[in-house]
Design a protein that fits this description.
The chain is mainly alpha-helical and about 300 residues long. It folds into two domains: about 80 residues, Helix Hairpins (Orthogonal Bundle), CATH 1.10.287; about 210 residues, Cytochrome c oxidase, subunit III, four-helix bundle (Four Helix Bundle (Hemerythrin (Met), subunit A)). Helix content is about 70%, strand content about 0%. The relative contact order is 0.11.
Length: about 300
């Protein structure tokens, strides 16, 4: 799949100092700061957010370019290849921890906080002999009922709850089919790469990218409906906050994954990969499968149960 045989160097290549990490940190800070400003009604928030995202995209493509040039020059030895694999595994591990924290927050709210405020704990709280919050319920929010999804907040005057929630077997179910299908197509593309079948590789990658961006389009449609028709927003109480935090974080990862797959498609078109040398493809495939698995948890615990 390349016009010449790939010959990696025998020594461990040490890259030159790079400015991309510090620039990426600035972009990430601006992105988060701009988003917070938008939540608080800051006029400059959208511009700061746009600047941060622009910096992050510039860093992504600039850093990709540096790594690709090193690879094409044969500077990635076998030891370097192992380093990349370990690094990618650690990165995915950190992503698991990130999503795990937000899932734990969701479980804590559903199993402990809401039942305690409503003086109606689930069985698990009874078994653990936890405080039921009867006094809190009687003296502060006597009319509050502990249900999930939470449509009526303890203080509805301060935080108006949503009118209704996203239906499980609508867009979420369709998005589940789309993402699971994309997992199959990227695996099919990988099989083509290992067999030296360039056509299968390119078609599989292209279909995966189309499915990824289709998922994003469906997610945007879902968010639009939630905000305009259901009253489900980030400010509609703890249910809205957990919903948009988890699904929004996942949507961000799908976007990043689709961009990386696009880069891989361009590289595959240019013949950068060999059946025995293509970890860049494998790394992105690992990331994409991780995104798929996270969505299954989201579908089950956010949309369904």
């Amino acid at each position: 799949m390349q016009s010449q045989q790939y010959q990696p160097v025998k020594y461990y290549y040490i890259a030159d100092p790079s400015f991309w990490p510090i620039v990426g940190s600035v972009g990430l800070f601006c992105t988060v700061f701009g988003f917070v400003q938008i939540l608080h009604g800051g006029v400059a928030g959208p511009y700061i957010l746009l600047a941060g995202l622009s910096i992050l995209f510039t860093v992504m493509f600039g850093w990709f370019g540096s790594v690709i040039r090193e690879s094409l020059q044969g500077l990635h030895s076998e030891q370097m290849d192992r380093s990349y694999r370990y690094g990618m595994l650690w990165f995915i591990g950190s992503e698991i921890a990130l999503f795990g924290v937000f899932f734990l927050a969701l479980f804590y709210v559903r199993i402990f906080s809401v039942p305690t405020l409503g003086a109606a704990p689930f069985d698990v709280t009874k078994d653990l002999l936890l405080y039921t919050g009867t006094a809190t319920h009687q003296y502060l929010w006597p009319k509050f009922q502990a249900v999930w999804p939470l449509l009526t907040n303890p203080n509805p005057q301060l935080f108006t709850g949503p009118k209704e929630v996203i239906q499980t077997w609508g867009i979420p179910a369709l998005n589940t089919i789309i993402l699971l299908s994309s997992a199959l197509t990227v695996t099919w593309a990988h099989w083509g790469l290992k067999k030296g079948n360039r056509k299968q590789l390119l078609i599989g990658l292209l279909i995966t990218i189309i499915l990824g961006f289709t998922f994003e389009g469906m997610q945007i449609s879902e968010y639009t409906e939630a905000y305009t028709h259901f009253g489900l927003t980030l400010g509609s109480g703890i249910y809205g906050s957990t919903f948009f935090t988890l699904t929004g974080l996942h949507a961000l990862h799908v976007t990043i994954g689709a961009i990386m797959l696009t880069v891989i498609l361009i590289r595959a078109w240019k013949g950068h990969f060999l059946p025995e040398h293509h970890f860049a493809f494998e790394a992105v495939a690992w990331y994409w499968h991780f995104v798929d698995v996270v969505w299954l948890f989201l579908f089950i615990f956010v949309y369904w149960l």
